Amino acid sequence: MRILANRKIKSLFDRILLCMLAVTLFSVACMGLGLENAALYIWICSLGMGIAVMVFCYRYFREQDKIMEAAVEQIKAYISGDENARIESNAEGELYGLFHEVNSLVAILNAHAENERRAKKFLKDTISDISHQLKTPLAALNIYNGIMQGEAEGLPTIKEFVDSSEQELDRIENLVQNLLNVAKFDAGAIVLEKASENVSEMMESVKKRFLFRALQEEKEILLAGDDTITLLCDRGWLTEAVGNVVKNALDHTEKGGVVCIEWRLSTSVIQITVKDNGSGIHPEDLYYIFKRFYRSRYSKDTQGIGLGLSLAKAIIESHGGAIKVDSDPGRGTTFIMDFLIPTKL
After folding, report:
1. Is residue 273 helix, strand or coil?
2. Is 227 helix (H, G, I), strand (E, B) or coil?
3. Contacts of residue 265, Cβ cutoff 8 Å, sequence gap at least 6
4. What's the pLDDT tens digit per position in 275-330?
5. Which 3 state secondary structure label does DSSP give 259?
6. CA-based, 20 to 30 A from 4: which of 46, 188, 244, 307?
């Protein structure tokens, strides 16, 4: 029997059998010798055997319980992040076979995790290298384009092409920066430097970032909220996230459109919303709106590349927040960002 492969189980069975054999021999001897009160002696001996068996079983199961507790502690340690946690599995038997398989599974998971870390690092390094390689020629092209803009005065056709090239260069720069940021988040290379920041000031900086574009496209960016509200966050990254949402709103509003950034404080949440009166999002696209590189077949937007909202979601979630979207096709879209207040938990 495989169960007897375990030395401790085999020892327990041997002790129980010895007790039973001893009681049997004692009973036969008492009956053979015709001792007075033989039944009493046999009963006392049987009671002693029962007590001994209970003691043997108690000691065995107490030891097994300690082994299981130690195994559970190692499993909890692994779940908590200790990759070196292992269950002792040096003995024989089914239980130790199970422990050995658990250890093998842990080794496999560690190998997969290490491979994933290497893949993410490779992706980060590759995209980072490509991005840095692109920045130098892009900077040169921007300079050349600026020179051509100065020389194109009085030449409408050339000026139109130069302005178009400037827009395309801006798109490429935005793509390069977003790719680099996404790669950093994937590789876990982002360290958030949180501080108590005034939400009103952050939203004002977001507005200033897009004000020139809004004026050119004859659109309006409105701000509404309490000037005293503060949020524990990394100012640079959070304004980047909200900025990406605002850019998405501008991309999907027509001439004369309005984008409203609002913020408010509730019992345990600071909520920031970005609302526009643009084209809205088709119901079929709502599930995929935060997917990378997702482009809707219903969208009229020709500027986006499908990274801004994905990056915004990653930044917001890294702050312990959540983002959701509510849209009415043809009437507009509202992005809602909720951030828990730690001191209110």
Report:
1. strand
2. coil
3. 226, 229, 271
4. 999 888 888 888 888 887 776 665 655 555 667 888 899 899 988 899 999 988 88
5. strand
6. 46
Enumerate the H helices of the chain as residue ranges.
7-33, 38-79, 94-151, 156-186, 199-216, 235-251, 308-318
Q: Amino acid letter at 82?
A: D
Distance CA 86, CA 107 (A): 9
Place of tokens 């842990």: 106
d(CA 165, CA 75): 58
Compute CA distances 190 → 175, 184, 186, whole Å: 19, 6, 9
87-97 per-residue burial string, b: 16 or more CB within 10 A, e: under 16 = bebeebbebbe
Name the residue with tokens 């960016």.
221
pLDDT tens, residue by residue, 173-199: 777 777 777 777 776 667 788 899 999
Q: How far is CA 241 from CA 26, 144, 171, 272, 273, in A?
A: 85, 31, 17, 11, 12
- What percent of the chain is modeled with pLDDT above 90? 20
**Do 238 and 253 touch, CB atoms closer than 8 A?**
no
Q: H helices within 197-331, ranges in order?
A: 199-216, 235-251, 308-318
Q: What tokens were used for 166?
A: 């400037």
Task: Please tell me the pTM assigned to this model.
Answer: 0.59
Helix/strand/coil for 172: helix
Q: How many CB atoms are closer than 10 A to CB 312?
A: 26
Residue 304's identity, in one-letter code, is G
In 224-256, which positions are buried (b, 16+ CB within 10 angstroms) versus exposed (e)? ebeeeebbbbbbebbbbbbbbbbbbbbbbbeee
- Gap between the Cα atoms of 131 and 133, Å rounded: 5
Which phi-psi region, left, alpha or beta, contains residue 299 (left: φ > 0; alpha: ψ -120 to 50)? beta
Greatest alpha-carbon span in the chain: 134
Q: Is the pLDDT of residue 339 over 90?
A: yes
- Contact between 292 and 304 (Cβ < 8 Å): no
The residue among 210, 232, 222, 315 whose CA lies nearest residue 273 is 222
The SS3 of residue 225 is strand
